[in-house]
Amino acid sequence: MRAMRPATGEAFGAEFPRATRADLEAMADTAFDAVDFLADAPGERIAGFLEDYARRLEGDRAEIARLAHEETALPLVPRLSEVEFNRTCLQMREAARCLRDESWREVAHDAQAGLRSTLVPLGGAVVCIGPSNFPLAFNGISGGDFCAAIAARNPVIAKAHPGHPNTTARLFTHACAARDQAGLPAAAVQCFFDCAPEDGEALLAHAGVAALGFTGSRAAGMRLKAACDALGKPASLEMSSVNPVFVASGAAAARAEAIADAWVASVLMGAGQFCTKPGVLLVSGEQAARRIAARAEELMRAAAPAILLSESVRSHLAAAVAELRDAGVEPVCGGSACGPGFRFEPTLCVVSAVQARAVRSVVLREAFGPLGVIVAVEGDGQLVDFARALDGQLASTVVSDDADAAVRATLFGVLRFKAGRLLDEAMPTGVAVHPAMVHGGPMPATNDARFTAVGLPGAAKRFSKALCLDRVRA
Amino acid sequence: MRAMRPATGEAFGAEFPRATRADLEAMADTAFDAVDFLADAPGERIAGFLEDYARRLEGDRAEIARLAHEETALPLVPRLSEVEFNRTCLQMREAARCLRDESWREVAHDAQAGLRSTLVPLGGAVVCIGPSNFPLAFNGISGGDFCAAIAARNPVIAKAHPGHPNTTARLFTHACAARDQAGLPAAAVQCFFDCAPEDGEALLAHAGVAALGFTGSRAAGMRLKAACDALGKPASLEMSSVNPVFVASGAAAARAEAIADAWVASVLMGAGQFCTKPGVLLVSGEQAARRIAARAEELMRAAAPAILLSESVRSHLAAAVAELRDAGVEPVCGGSACGPGFRFEPTLCVVSAVQARAVRSVVLREAFGPLGVIVAVEGDGQLVDFARALDGQLASTVVSDDADAAVRATLFGVLRFKAGRLLDEAMPTGVAVHPAMVHGGPMPATNDARFTAVGLPGAAKRFSKALCLDRVRA
Question: Which domains are delineated in chain B?
Answer without folding.
Answer: 3-239+446-470 (3.40.605.10), 245-424 (3.40.309.10)
